[in-house]
Amino acid sequence: MWMRFTIVSTLLLLLALAPRNTAAQTDASKSPISEQTYSATMKQIASTFRSLQINNKAMNHTDGEREAGRLAQWFADIQGYWEAKNVKDAASEAKIAIDAARAIESASKAMNMSTLDDAEKRLAGTCQNCHKAHREALGDGTFRIR
Ligand code: HEC
After folding, report:
1. Which tens digit of pLDDT belongs to each residue from 55-83?
2. Residue 22 has what pLDDT?
3. Which residues of the chain have pLDDT under 50?
4. Which run of H or of E encompasses 74?
5. What's the pLDDT score for residue 23?
6. Per-residue pLDDT, 107
7. 87 found inside a domain
């Protein structure tokens, strides 16, 4: 009788201590995006970055702040893709892009134009660096990951 009680309470205790798969999991546990989503994300990044540059020039900071925030989120997906593949230079370039986009976001809010310009240049640099190393032109106007 006591034996059974001990076994049951031990089981209950183990159950209570077991790690649970709850909604509280963070983005880090999100599965990486597919190559198809990667390509679609790059297209969104490109058009949003173009629009951001125009808004920054026009000092349209409300839209600029929103666009920079979206860029930071998309680059987090890009970073996750490369981290899952363990490609360090691309993952770190994506991280620089996230940080630059966040810097643009807060500089837009503060209307700090010199910080904004610097961060925009830094962000543009990541496009070039990563494309040189990891984007292959297929000759028909499309690209693939390499
Ligand atoms: C960490 C790497 C990385 C960074 C940073 C990056 N890209 Fe890309 N990009 C890629 C790769 C890889 C591809 C090829 C994948 C594809 O197009 O299917 C690509 C493709 C593209 C394409 C072609 C999309 C298509 O398929 O037609 C555009 C446009 C683009 N990127 C714009 C940008 C812009 C603008 C930035 C910076 C604001 C940027 N990218 C930053 C890696 C990156």
Report:
1. 999 999 999 999 999 999 999 999 999 99
2. 43
3. 20-26
4. helix 61-85
5. 43
6. 98
7. yes
Q: What is the CATH number of the domain that holds 115?
A: 1.20.120.10
How many CB atoms are closer than 10 A to CB 102?
16
55-58 contacts at long range (C-beta below 8 A, 24 or more positions apart): 56/104, 56/108, 56/116, 56/117, 56/120
Residue 64's nearest CA partner among 100, 118, 107 is 107
Residue 98 covered by a domain: yes
The response to whether residue 87 sits with its C-beta less than 6 Å from ligand 1 reads no
Task: State if residue 121 touches ligand 1 by the CB under 6 angstroms criterion.
Answer: no
Give the separation between CA 39 and CA 21, rounded to whole angstroms.
30
Residue 25 confidence (pLDDT)? 42
Q: What is the pTM of this model?
A: 0.84
What's the alpha-carbon Rg for the chain, to the nearest Å? 22
Which residues constitute the domain of residue 136?
34-145
Is any atom of ligand 1 closer than 6 Å to the C-beta of 33?
A: no
Q: Quick one: which of 75, 24, 25, 30 has its CA closest to 48?
A: 75
Any domain includes 18: no
Q: Whose Cα sits closest to atom 13 in ligand 1?
A: 135
Which residues are registered as beta bridge partners of 144?
Answer: 136
**What is the number of domains present in the chain?**
1
